[in-house]
Amino acid sequence: MESETRLKKPEKEIIAELQEGDRTKGFLVEATGRHRNTIYRGLERLEAAGIVECLHRPTHLYSIKNVPEDSQ
């Protein structure tokens, strides 16, 4: 992500889950307890920033690419 863009708490939760392994959007919604739109927006931002990638569009399977320093 751009240096002036800070990670939001839901995005940090997404990264934490993806560090455990590849996850679908639905799994991330259940695991974080967040609304699906929150997860979808977070994934879009993280994907645009090159932090995560979608491995399989039909199932919305995501994987981590780069872990940013401020993800904790």
TrEMBL record:
Taxonomic lineage from the root: Archaea, Methanobacteriati, Methanobacteriota, Stenosarchaea group, Halobacteria
Transmembrane intervals: none
Organism: Halosimplex aquaticum
Protein name: Helix-turn-helix domain-containing protein
Domain Transcription regulator TrmB N-terminal: 19-65
Listed Pfam families: TrmB
